[in-house]
Amino acid sequence: MAHPSQLGFQDAASPVMEELLHFHDHALMIVFLISTLVLYIIVAMVTTKLTNKYILDSQEIEIIWTVLPAVILILIALPSLRILYLMDEINDPHLTIKAMGHQWYWSYEYTDYEDLGFDSYMIPTQDLTPGQFRLLEADHRMVIPVESPIRVLVSAEDVLHSWAVPALGVKMDAVPGRLNQTAFIASRPGVFYGQCSEICGANHSFMPIVVEAVPLEHFENWSSLMLEDA
Amino acid sequence: MLATRALRLVGKRAISTSVCVRGGHGVAKVEDYTLPNLSPEQASLKEKEKGSWAALSDEEKIALYRISFKQSFAEMTQGSSEWKSVVGGMFFLIGFTGLVVLWQRKYVYGPVPHTFEAEYKEKELQRVLDMRMNPVEGFASKWDYENKQWKK
Predict the structure, then answer these.
(1) What is the pLDDT of residues A195-205, one digit of tens each?
(2) Using CB atoms, which residue from B113, B127, B137 is nearest to A11?
(3) For residues B18-34, b (16+ Cβ closer than 10 Å) or e, as one string?
(4) What domains are there in chain A, each with its CATH number?
(5) Where does the Cytochrome oxidase subunit II copper A binding domain lie (chain A) (predicted)?
């Protein structure tokens, strides 16, 4: 999760998020360069003592300030499209989980082998144990095995929601009557938090997503325990 | 003729799509190209300007300049004290906003959640470090787990 007043991204927990971080660095650098140039030009224009009322046109500079932005846009588009296609590659998942959005909680179904399903409600602020994160903790986490490709099928039972986990670089809209697919690999174990990302009513801010990536044996133990409890 | 037909087709609005000196409101102002109405002394000075400029005295040169230009370069580039009132007004309004914020905090807002208490925040921090959140370049990467302190 983010620490208070954090401005930048969280550390990547999946390969796709790593790519996104690098692309963001690249695009932001370009943006800073352009902004610095423009700011310099503005300051120079405002503080100059020179005057010239009779400029009408100049073909050279017009060519430069048309071609150069086109080149810059290409420099941004090429890495961007590369990541776009990378995210769409065939990934052969080890596990498929259905994440269903409700007003106002998520429910997860693991139906590859057995019939495991459970709801995940936010822990209310007054019920937190000391140290838990306000508005982010859920009573049941979506547990996944680490370093395995996971496919998540996202949908909704009532209104639009959106299933997002920033550390994994994942966001997928939950549309009623529609199955949206997204996939990721958790490269490291840990707990990754996210929040519903499509306005869905009064408690839209209070239906978080918690993904816990654990080694495979722990995942197997967890799913056995969950099946017993059900 | 084409222009009048176009105007009839488009409507009865006044359109100025080109610089019209007659219109008097284009980009090129007539004052930029023509001399203002000259008094008799100024007219005779303009005649004298057609001869050798070395024969003109300094006052005459300045008078000729003033016919064509409203301000000298020095007058044009001199600053004003306006910035002082702008900055002063800006600081005053910022200060006033601060007062409004303080008043709101005292009389409008309710208490913050209990998770903001110092003891709770300590436990939260411990939990963030225990869970190794953002261990690569973020939060937990700044903590020295061996020596139990922040990295220098």
Answers:
(1) 999 999 999 99
(2) B137
(3) eeeeeeeeeeeeeeeee
(4) 13-86 (1.10.287.90), 93-227 (2.60.40.420)
(5) 92-225
